[in-house]
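During the no-cost extension, the postdoctoral fellow (Dr. R.K.) reprocessed legacy sequence entries with the updated structure-token encoder. One reprocessed record is reproduced below for audit purposes.
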Amino acid sequence: MHIRSLLIPALAAISNFTMGQFAVNPQLGVNFTRLTNTPAGVTSSAAAGFQLGADLRLGDRLYFQPGAFFGRSATYVKLSPQDTVTMEDNLIRTTAKVKALMGYNLVHGDAFRLRVNAGPTYEALLSVDNKDDQIAFNKDDYNGGSFNLDAGLGLDLVFITLEGGLSYGLSNAYKDEGKLLSASKYFTWYATLGFVIGGGRN
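Re-encoded structure tokens follow.
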């Protein structure tokens, strides 16, 4: 009986500590991706895509934030070489992205939290579509993945989460085989809506 009276409070304390140090944040949102370092005669702008996935938060005010996301991004590209007919197309990618971010709560309340995060990510290319088939790019023209540096600003309203951020590509988007866009990289803005479970909220 004495052991049980000690064990039950200990288990309760461990459970409370674990919930305070661990949270799950499923999210759904939009993204806008364009290309950087485009050469003369090429312009790129972002079209709307989507992403869905989840982050974990391991820690308290300062926390490790790994995550995994599935997404579709669309990039509008216009090619206008000299003495050549102008070509325009939406280049659409399907990707799987993993994150290894660090986060910090600038405001650390139970009902309201304002937070920032930053860190490396990797985005693997799953498939490629050309919406109008005007530009003859296919999956073999792309690098298989991109390392990125991500940063975001978010807030939690009780269990509802809002986050916006950017992802700056560190890898070339296309293979370096003399292609027109071989030096281009991805630059993405995103915004998500989700909910958070755990994290020590009362």
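The radius of gyration is 21 Å. Residues 55 and 86 are 42 Å apart (CA to CA). The remaining legacy entries will be reprocessed before the final report is submitted.
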